[in-house]
Amino acid sequence: MTENQKELLANIAPFGLRMQADLKERIKAAAERNGRSMNSEIVATLENAYPAFSKEFLEELSFLDQIDEIAAKLERVRAEAEEIARAREEVKKVDRAISKADDLLKKPKK
Question: What is the mean pLDDT for each group of 10 consecutive residues in the chain (110 residues)?
């Protein structure tokens, strides 16, 4: 084992694990079949069960999050646009009422 490999191993925190005797025997048998230590067999099995996400996958997740944020903003803008449209209708009603009032004021009194 090289010094670099020893240093890498020294930086890995040990992890105590309790298991049933029959499970330990199955792991031992699998390790022997695969030409690995029991520790290596357990690590390989865990790596297979819990794969690391690729950079591309994480970027894609980030992109999907951005799409969700944009969709939420768009929904807020649509709601504001609807509110503005309702307010414009109210302004038109008020304008019509003012126009009618002006017309009434302009008519000569008899």
Answer: 72 86 96 93 92 87 92 96 97 96 82
